Predict the structure.
Amino acid sequence: MSLWKCSFGLASKELEVTKKKKQALDSLSASNKISQSTYDTLNADITKAISELESHLKSLKDRMDSRTQELERQMSTLELFLASLEIHHAAGDVDDATYERQNDAILLGLEATKQEMTEIEVSTKVIMQPTTPSALLVEPEDPAVEAEKEAEEEPELGEDAELEIEDLDLEETSTLEA
């Protein structure tokens, strides 16, 4: 697996998880389950982590753009080799067996290059999509009904219950900084 694929996968997943943490924090705040100062502290940490992850993805996109340019040059070179091979074969300079082996190798290289360019293009489109999770884009029909639904879905915190904030493992967001 290419290094950029691994890095892209990790950063994208981490960003998605961090945004879910932000949603959970916002929900806790909206339902008055945490104080404003707690919200502000955690929100600052999560917002910073989101910003860093988005910055990392932008940097990764720049490297992917550079790799795309490199692959375009590689494709041009392979196409020149293929044309040269065809010319030499037509002129009788290259026998059929050698032509077949070299032609297969060049075509295999072209196919691999095109495949990697396609993968980069798809990944770049994902990076360039709006960073707001789709759940945040859906507006409730009636805020009172929506608040009632959220209250029914969220369990009440009892004496023995631990705050859902523990799920907001902020240290997890710093794994890409190292």
User: Anything to note?
Assistant: The CA atoms of residues 155 and 161 lie 10 Å apart. Residues 3-176 form one domain. Residues 36-90 form the longest helix (55 residues). The radius of gyration is 26 Å.
